[in-house]
Amino acid sequence: MGHNRLGRLPRTRRWQEVVDLLDLPSASVAAIAAAVVDAAEHRLRGLANDEALAYAFWTLARVTWAARQDSFLQELSWLGVRDWPEPSAIGLISGTVQHVRSRVAELEARNDFAEFAALAVARSLTETVGREGPGLFSSTAEDAQRAFRAYSTPAKFGELARLFFADFMSRSLKSFVDRELSNHVGSGKVIRSVEGSQDFLNALELHTRQAARIIEEFSEGWYSLHNWESSGDIGLKEAQRFVAQALRKLRAELKQGATAA
Question: Are 208 and 32 in contact (CB under 8 A)?
């Protein structure tokens, strides 16, 4: 987990509020998530300029659009996705994730969040592209291309983007909270047993996924506009700007969720 390198939570006022909520039996997951976002605001805002996160999202946009071309596998190769176990949906997903990891490893700003971005690519593609066609282990390149192409429409890409940002943010929030959970288990607390720790993390993930719905429609418009303007050649800088806006929207939604709860 990311906390192995991030260390214990800082003892600032905002982080102390997170710690206090973990000891409050009536505290909701939404309230804790909002407090974590507030306490980690500076770090989360910095992700707007994170090269690894931008590259991971850019890769999603480009590989789905590449599936519209007759020379899909050649297009993937041009993008840098060259090594895949087999020309099936799962094989190309594996190759795409490996490419993102390899590219991220070259970046000077490599950190725990970079790995979260690569894992978010894997999960979002598996939960969408991987479920298209005859099965996850499609037997032909054509099956795989159809699976990827299904997510090259604005509406479907919006779904893919929502899952990507939900998974990334969920992993990020859990990396902070997980470091404190073992110190806040027992009667009269949010987490009453060791077994309840995983239940809490699962609830935090679900809450983050629900909040990420705000990104879906926003992603649809962006994907449609920029693919039209660039004939499918969306630039990395455009992806970087989108990531900054998407994260801002998601942070705001998570903070608002506590009020609604």
Answer: no
Tell me, what DSSP letter sits at residue 71? T
Report the C-alpha gap between 31 and 207 in whole angstroms: 11
* DSSP sequence for 165-229: HHHHHHHHHHHHHHHHHTTSBSTTSSB-SHHHHHHHHHHHHHHHHHHTHHHHHHHHHHHHHHHHH
Q: Cα separation of 44 and 51, whole Å?
A: 14
pLDDT higher than threshold 90 for residue 252: yes
Residue 77 Cα to chain centre, angstroms: 24
Number of H helices, E strands in the chain: 13, 0
CB 32, CB 261: distance < 8 Å: no
- Range 32-39 average pLDDT: 90
Q: Phi and psi of 185, rounded to 5°?
A: -120, 130
Which has more pLDDT, 231 or 45?
Answer: 45
Helix, strand, coil percentages, rounded to 5, for the chain: 75, 0, 25
- The pTM (predicted TM-score) of the whole model is 0.89
Could you tell me the pLDDT band of residue 178, with boundaries at 50, 70 and 90? confident
Q: Sorting pLDDT into bands at 50, 70 and 90, what band is 134?
A: low
Contact 200, 190 (CB under 8 A): yes
Query: How confident is the model at residue 26, as a pLDDT?
Result: 78
CA distance 79 to 235: 12
Task: Measure CA 231 to chain center.
Answer: 26
